[in-house]
């Protein structure tokens, strides 16, 4: 669902995928290879929202701001399920954990990792490569090279997902029983613990 608002029509690069059950409104610019999941709401009704290339905004996320603001998610920012970003700017290749809340005029630096359910207060500023957790959120240590490599690998999966969705996602009627030739699900993800063992 893509809506114009007061003359602003969202701009979405053709390589990106916005799920039909997401809502993108108004002054929103979405770059290349971005994924917007079902239930996500990206509201550019009161201000400008820019998603640079390779950003993903997962299921049930909310992106909004106070009037007159412009916010930017830098390249490869990764916003986990259920997160709320209200008027904050996100650095390149950062990870925003599930159900976290990032408030107005906060700045999350490049390659930061924000833990699940963290609450980042308005006007908080975090330098690059910080692990940020808690309520209120605090930086507790520097993100290691191994952690950022794992995060980057996970984000690459989401950067391939738009093409997979364009190619194969279709609305269908459900089957009434499991077919004998049902395809096997691919196993292509490693947890951080598995990643550490191999690297």
From TrEMBL:
<dbReference type="InterPro" id="IPR011004">
    <property type="entry name" value="Trimer_LpxA-like_sf"/>
</dbReference>
<protein>
    <submittedName>
        <fullName>Carbonic anhydrase</fullName>
    </submittedName>
</protein>
<dbReference type="InterPro" id="IPR001451">
    <property type="entry name" value="Hexapep"/>
</dbReference>
<dbReference type="InterPro" id="IPR050484">
    <property type="entry name" value="Transf_Hexapept/Carb_Anhydrase"/>
</dbReference>
<feature type="region of interest" description="Disordered">
    <location>
        <begin position="174"/>
        <end position="199"/>
    </location>
</feature>
<dbReference type="Pfam" id="PF00132">
    <property type="entry name" value="Hexapep"/>
</dbReference>
């Amino acid at each position: 669902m893509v809506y114009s608002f007061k003359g602003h029509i969202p701009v979405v690069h053709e390589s990106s995928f916005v799920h039909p059950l997401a809502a993108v409104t108004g002054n929103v610019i979405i770059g290349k290879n971005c994924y917007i999941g079902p239930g996500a709401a990206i509201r550019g009704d009161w201000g400008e929202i820019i998603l640079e290339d390779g950003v993903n905004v997962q299921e049930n996320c909310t992106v909004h701001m106070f009037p007159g603001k412009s916010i930017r998610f830098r390249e490869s920012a990764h916003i986990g399920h259920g997160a709320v970003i209200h008027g904050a700017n996100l650095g390149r290749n950062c990870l925003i954990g599930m159900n976290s809340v990032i408030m107005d005029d906060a700045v999350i630096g490049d390659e930061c990792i924000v833990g699940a359910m963290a609450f980042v207060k308005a006007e908080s500023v975090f330098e690059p490569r910080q692990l940020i957790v808690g309520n209120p959120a605090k930086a507790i240590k520097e993100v290691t090279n191994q952690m950022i490599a794992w995060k980057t690998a996970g984000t690459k999966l989401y950067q391939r997902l738009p093409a997979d969705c364009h190619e194969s996602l279709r609305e269908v009627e459900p089957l009434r029983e499991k077919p004998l030739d049902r395809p096997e699900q691919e196993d292509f993800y490693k947890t951080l613990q598995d990643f550490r063992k191999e690297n």
